[in-house]
Every structure is written in C-alpha cells, then in structure tokens.
Amino acid sequence: MTTQYGTRPTMKDVAARARVGLKTVSRVVNDEPGVTPATADRVRSAITELGFRRNDSARMLRKGRTASVGLLLEDIGDPFYSVLSRAVEAVARFHGSLLFTGSSAEHPQRERELAMAFCARRVDGLVIVPAGDDHRYLLPELAAGTAAVFVDRPAEQIEADAVLSDSAGGAREGTEHLIRHGHRRIGFVGDQPQIHTAAERLRGYREAMAAAGLPVDPDQVAMGPTDPATVAAALERLTSGPHPVTALLTGNNRITLEVLRRLPALPYRPALVGFDDLELAELLVPGLTVVAQDPAGLGRTAADLLFRRLDGDTTPPRTVRLPTRLIPRGSGETVAPG
Amino acid sequence: MTTQYGTRPTMKDVAARARVGLKTVSRVVNDEPGVTPATADRVRSAITELGFRRNDSARMLRKGRTASVGLLLEDIGDPFYSVLSRAVEAVARFHGSLLFTGSSAEHPQRERELAMAFCARRVDGLVIVPAGDDHRYLLPELAAGTAAVFVDRPAEQIEADAVLSDSAGGAREGTEHLIRHGHRRIGFVGDQPQIHTAAERLRGYREAMAAAGLPVDPDQVAMGPTDPATVAAALERLTSGPHPVTALLTGNNRITLEVLRRLPALPYRPALVGFDDLELAELLVPGLTVVAQDPAGLGRTAADLLFRRLDGDTTPPRTVRLPTRLIPRGSGETVAPG
Q: Looking at the keywords, is DNA-binding present (chains A, B) (predicted)?
C-alpha cells in the first residue's frame, strides 16, 4: 500500500491540528482509554481533514496480512448501502487496507460465491450484509483466521459479530407516532419476510399496535419484493376495500419511494412514516416523516470492530445495536379522519 | 473465482429463457455482429435474470490474469457514482472478475496512491474517475499490460480510453431551454473549474448564452467547492444586487440539492434546471427539471471497453461520449418575469 509520492500527514500534524499532545492522538488511534469524547472527536476530525493514516504495512506483513478486506452488500447502487460503503472505506483506508466490494442482489448463492472469492484472495476480513440464512460455509475461513463482521443483518447458524439498527424499536416508534396522531387502522408495507430487518420491523409494528390494543387484520400488512409493481399492488390493497388504512408505515427506502410515487393517484392521502431517510425528504410537500437509520454509523462501527478483531481482540462475538431516530416533517403528523 | 456450490446457469439456460438459439447467445456474449438490437436486449435481460456469467477463469489464468479490476471513484457515497459502480460491478461479474473500489475524494494524491495500490495487487485493469491532472504516473503500469479506462472525466497528459457524458452539450441544452422560456439573465453555479466536467458545463452554458446574444457578467457565474456554505454564498450573490438572475443552471447533483434547500429562504423563486437527475425529483413541487446523465451507461460502457482491451483489442485509445437528456418537470419552465 505504500507509495513514494508526495508527503504524508504524520501523527504530529494531527496533534498540531487538534491542539493536543502526541500521546492523545496515539490513544485515539489505538482506541485506548483516557481521552474525553470531545477531544477524541477533535482528533478524529483532524485525522479526516488531513487524510492521516496509520502506517500499518510493516505490522501487516509481520502478521501475514494482505491489507485488504471484502465488503459484501446487497446493492452498491442503493443510497443506503453506498453511504455504508463510504464509511467502511474510510476506516479501511485509515488502517491502510484496500477494499473489495461486491453486491449479492439478495441472492444467497451470490453472497456465498462472493465471500468465497474474497477469501480465495486472502482478504484479512469480511464485512457482510448477508442475503443467505446459513453462514456455516464461512466456518473454515473463520477457523483459518479470517475476521468477519455482519452488518445490517446478523449471521445465521454461526456465532459472529454483528452491527445492526434497532429495526424493531424504530418500527415501534414510528407506529406509536401514528397512533398518537389518532390513527387506529395503520398499514405496514415491508420487504420479503425472510429478510431479518423486514421481519424485525414487522415485529415492532405489531408490538406497538398490540400495546395500544389495536387489532391488525391480515389485509393491513403486505410483505414482499420491493419492485414497483408489487409495492403498487400492496398499496392498492391496503387503501381500498371496506376498511382502508388511514396511515402507513413503509419498511425501507425503496418501498417509501414507490409509495410516494403512487400517492397522487390514490383517492385520499394516508399519513406516512417511512423507514430510512431519503435525500430531499424535507423538500417534499408535506415533508416526509421518517425513522432514520444511521448507515454511516453502521459501516463505521462494523469496520472498527473488524479491525479490532484483526488487532487481536478475541473476546466473544458481540452484537451492537444502533438506535434509529424519528424525524417528524409533516407526512406522519396528519390527524386521522373522524 | 470458481466455487463448488450449487448449479450455475449455462448459455443453454440463457438461450431457453430468451427463446433464441445458442449461437445468438454466443454472439451477444462475445459482442459479435448479426443480432438485432431487440433480440440482443432480450438475451441481455435473460443473462441478468439468470445471473449467467462467462467462465473466464481458464482463459484468465492462461493469460496471467488475476481476474480483478480496480474502480477508482470520487466518492462511493455519492448516488451518481454508486449507480456507476453498480454498472461496473455487473460487467466485471459477468467476466468473472472481482472489484476493488476506492474513493479519491477529489484529491489527486489519493487517486494516485489508490491507483498504484491497485496496480501493486496486480489488477488486470482500472476504471478511473480521475481527480488529478497528470496521469503519466500510470505509464509504466500501462506499458506492463494493465488496461485503463477513464470515465466521467478524461485522462490528462496520457492517451487513454475515456467514456464521458456530453457535458457541454447538456449544459447548452439546459441553458437554451431557459432562454426559450424568456430568461435573459441566467446564472450558472458550478463545481471547481479545474474539474473537467465543471469546465465543460460552464463552456456549454457560455456558448448557449453567446449564441442567443446574451451577455454573461462575472456576477452571474459562481464556480467552487460544493459544500453547503459555498453554494449558499454563491446563491446569495447571484440572486441579490441590482440585477438578480431570473433563472439558474446548477452544475451537478450536490449543487442542485443545496440550491433546493435554500430556495424557500430566497425573496423570489428563480427558474431552475439542474445537471444530474435526483431521486424524488418528479415529486417536488414544482417538479425538478434536469439535464440527466446516464451514470449506469457510463459505468457499463467503460467496463465493456476495459474488458474488450483485456480481450486483446489494440486499436488506438478512443473517447466515447454519451448524450444527456433534458427532462422538463416544472422548475425550468417558469416564464421570466416582465
């Protein structure tokens, strides 16, 4: 990874920019205690601004590392995963590591092929948004020393680190928000139920409805692929018939987008809370109320955990859950009719 | 890249799905003539749906290949580049090749480091969105047989393949559109002038203004970084003073986004044409008129060209220019006051 061109920012430069001592920079870089959060933030900002990287090459080689990691996503073209990727790339870069990327397109077989192809290139570790429901195929690789952190969705059938959004909690909060605005008949349009995040969000929705004593009829829920035709059919079903919903919780950015495109054609406008934030969401009229995830935080936390493992952390696998955030902007605050 | 799991779709499966003969599939796969565009489209759809890939491994190894390519972007987190990446990944996958990705963040030094790091991993080829203005550092790699295709912006100081949008033509068309709606004082807010696409779009804007006999005062043009503060200052400058603009052409998706966020705070609403399409653009009120590029087409064409080079195409370097498309949606069709 080392090249001969130009001059590299040093730890000294970072210390000067952040107005701290060298030792403080070293502590932040090596994730050691004894630095206040505010100071650590300042050091990290200086690191980003200067483009500082640890020179890990010598250490890497000593450990038999290739200084590369594989990032396996559902779809690099999806804004959620592209922001997650940017964060993983930034952490990898900081550690002097290159990044392989690949998209599974929600096919377990493709996930497995890509993961094995990355391993065949002897990546030091994998950050995986899994598509499959059985990750035992990774066991020989993990035993051989490859690190793996799952992100967005957990590993199945093996014990592994995972960094997840609080999907159930977020969906619960979004549903409670609609209930607070007087809605009783609230619909949920989610992704395919075998996807972990989709199932968790459905669970959160059901829990909030149950806690409020509200029944959930089968015709209030639609789970399926997120292509335009399927979402349109779901929306049609939930908003017609004798008991149309007065409000909707949509399960991810792709579903929300399709619902937004179809709203003008509906005979009435249900209140809407979308899971995942969208660019321009605040510029719509009404603004789009969302349960926002933190895709950059997911990517950063997963990559940090991966490099901690590569640095020798052998504590048991852990699951980190990042909170979601409800952002009211108008579409979810319409009061229910009647 | 080959793994032992599951069954792979074959050329036969593709032929059956597309309802054509094996020979036709082979022609499409090998880019040979004699297939109508409609049939070729059907074959390509079947290839995508089935996830068919050529088995290039044996051929690759024979040629001393590593079956990996490096993709160097400005920012993987930008929706424009994430869609471009998805297209490059699909072509690479089709050829059985893995993808390294990295973001230069518009730093020439980082571009160079990443490109050299990819080359040190012996990638077969590079697809590069360049940040720098001197690519002679690549000459030894190119001489050693590494292929390189530039995309979005051309190579500088070396002869190399490039796949570009018609930035000047697109900006000309967007400006003419505003002129046709009666605007005479039209502003242009662009990215930093040393960026090729920014300079080309400024040129197209100036050409359209000159062709219509309209003067361009210095205070109608703002070129600079695309961070919120800089764009806000530019917008403030162009819309205040004795001769505020009545219409705006914005130079890329990030600038358009910032301008949209600031519009509500302006004393009046200038007509707006944005370069690059945005998700949700048609759902804004008024809808956002854009000059749309084809990021998927850029990525696909660049990657196709790269693999053609790897397949032995030794014709001189070429520049492919993809057309842009004006999409009127409301914001650019406001008639000028007076």
A: yes
Question: Within 13 A of A215's CA, how many CA atoms are on the CB side?
Answer: 4
pLDDT score, position A2 = 33
Residues of B within 8 A of A85 (CB-CB) are: 76-77, 82, 101
Place of tokens 């990295």: B102
pTM for the structure as a whole: 0.83
The predicted complex's ipTM stands at 0.81
List chain B residues with pLDDT less than 50. Answer: 1-6, 56-57
- A-chain residues near B121 (CB < 8 A): 68, 98
Closest CA to B239 of B271, B276, B274: B271
pLDDT tier at A6 (50, 70, 90 boundaries)?
Answer: very low
Identify the band that residue A48 occupies on the pLDDT scale cut at 50, 70 and 90.
Answer: confident
Q: In what order do the strands lie in the sheet with A319-322?
A: A319-322, A161-165, A147-151, A125-128, A68-73, A98-103, B98-103, B68-73, B125-128, B147-151, B161-165, B319-322
- DSSP, res A330: B
Interface contact A330, partner B, CB < 8 A: no
Contact A280 B278 (CB under 8 A): yes
CA angle B111, B113, B115 (to 5 degrees): 65
Q: Which residue has the tokens 């090729």?
A: B196
d(CA B54, CA B43): 14
How distant, in Å, are the alpha carbons of A79, A323, B246, B274, B328 from that of B281? 15, 29, 21, 10, 11
Q: Is A252 on the interface with B (CB under 8 A)?
A: no
Minimal CA separation from B281 to chain A, in Å: 8
Specify the 3-state DSSP secondary structure of A98.
strand
Q: Where are the beta strands (DSSP E) in chain A?
A: 68-73, 98-103, 125-128, 147-151, 161-165, 186-190, 221-223, 247-250, 271-275, 289-292, 319-322, 325-327
- Type of residue numbered A199: A
Condensed to tens digits (0 to 9), the pLDDT of residues B84-120 reads 999 999 999 999 999 999 999 999 999 999 999 999 8
Note the pLDDT tens digit of each residue in A127-147. Answer: 999 999 999 999 999 998 999
State whether A6 and B284 contact (CB < 8 Å). no
Residue A66 is which amino acid?
T
Over the stretch A236-258, which tens digit does the pLDDT of each residue have? 999 998 999 999 999 999 999 99
Would you tell me how many other CB atoms lie within 10 Å of the CB of residue A40? 16
Residue B50 contacts A where some CB pair is shorter than 8 Å: no
CB A126 within 8 A of CB A162: no
Q: What is the pLDDT of residue A5?
A: 33
Determine the pLDDT at residue A223: 98
CB < 8 Å from B in window 1-30 of A: 1, 3, 5-6
According to DSSP, the residues that pair with A126 across neighbouring strands are A70, A148
d(CA B219, CA B185) in angstroms, rounded, equals 11
Q: Which chain B residues are closer than 8 Å to A74 by Cβ?
A: none
| Contacts A87 to B, Cβ<8 Å | 77
Contact B284 A279 (CB under 8 A): no
Of B78, B137, B280, the CB nearest to A284: B280
Q: How many CB contacts within 8 angstroms connect chain A with chain B? A: 134
Which of A283, A324, A336 shows the shortest CA–CA distance to A169?
A324
Task: Determine the distance from the C-alpha atom of residue A35 to the mean position of all C-alpha atoms in its chain, rounded to a whole number.
Answer: 28
Interface check for B137 against chain A (CB to CB < 8 A): the answer is yes
Percentage of the residues of chain A whose pLDDT score is greater than 70? 93
In this complex, the residue of A51, A105, A285 whose CB is nearest that of residue B285 is A285
